[in-house]
Amino acid sequence: CPSPPVTLPSPPRSADSVIGPSSDRIQTLDVLRGLALLGMIVVHFHNHTLEIVTGVNEILRTLVWRLVEEKSHGTFALLFGAGFAIQLRRADLRGMPFAGRYLRRLAVLFLFGFVAHAGFGYNVLIGYAVWGVPLLFIRRWSTRALIILAVLSTMSVPLYWRASQQYIRMTQGPEPAAAFMQARIAESRSVWNALHAAEDDNSYGRLLAARLHHMAWFYRQPFFIMPGATITLFIVGLLFVRHRFFEDPLAHRGVIIGLMIFGLVSWVADNWLLDLAPFAIQMAGMLLRNQWLTFTYVGAFLLVVAPRAAWMALLRPIGLAGRMA
């Protein structure tokens, strides 16, 4: 017999009831996902706009890049980790096996990701499918261990480049180290230029071949084969569910405000301050990313919007769109 549905308990301040008593979904997650979806629509729509008014388009492009692009992606990644944690929690409550079903879902996600990248040029989903696998092995780790892993993951890519340069400088000298970086930059430009040239071509066959060539290069790069920000955001989402941030955000006001401040400081520093700082400060700044403004957005939503049932009711259509994930 199929197991009866399990409804997770909701605290009195939650606005989950506005989507109906038969749902066991956390509406906060649906609305956040819908807002992230709206943000990505804005990003991709703007990528295809024309330069109509001189100067205005560049201002809009800068605003979209600074305030929306990586932050919408960051919200999706955070909610991916949250979705993993919710699936795990519900499987545990029902006494059902989890790993096999989860891996099958990741396999399907990988196939969608391959089609999205090869067919349309969007590369996010394969990264989610690949880096979703380690969550199975760390899902029972303590909160402290997960935070340490999140910090190390954030620093992994810049540390790799620093260590590579330093190793070549120590073993071969400063000129080979500089030549190494120049060669990597030239290779990257060559691959991207070939892709852009194919995009301007009239042949979809040549474009598909160029995308496959680009994918063969892309998925061998350090920014993909190292966890980076993806695992960090997955872990944050997992911890948000573990400690019930989404269901009772006001009980965690201090932590959420701290994350909001950290996100805002990281955004300012990464965009305008770190390049001007001494080397030692730049090394310490490896933890600071403009993408962490995601924490500010999510935190503001949880503290200001989520506790207000009337506001959540107004956002119900966005929550319905957010269910599509």
Describe this structure in words.
Helix 6 packs antiparallel against helix 10 and helix 11 (253-273) runs antiparallel to helix 13. It is globular and about 60 Å long. The protein has helices spanning 27-47, 56-94, 99-120, 124-131, 135-138, 143-171, 174-199, 204-218, 222-225, 228-242, 253-273, 279-284, 293-305, 309-314, 316-322. It is an all-alpha fold.
Describe the global form: globular
- Got a strand count? 0
Structural class: mainly alpha
N-to-C terminal Cα separation, in Å?
Answer: 28 Å
Rg, nearest Å: 22 Å
> Kindly state the mean pLDDT as a whole number?
88
Poorly predicted regions are 1-22
Residues in helix, % = over 70%
SSE order, one letter for each helix or strand? HHHHHHHHHHHHHHH
Largest sheet: none
Number of helices: 15
Note the beta-strand portion: under 5%
Set down the secondary structure blueprint.
Elements: H1 27-47, H2 56-94, H3 99-120, H4 124-131, H5 135-138, H6 143-171, H7 174-199, H8 204-218, H9 222-225, H10 228-242, H11 253-273, H12 279-284, H13 293-305, H14 309-314, H15 316-322
Helix pairs in contact: 1-2, 1-15, 2-10, 2-13, 3-4, 6-7, 6-10, 7-8, 11-13
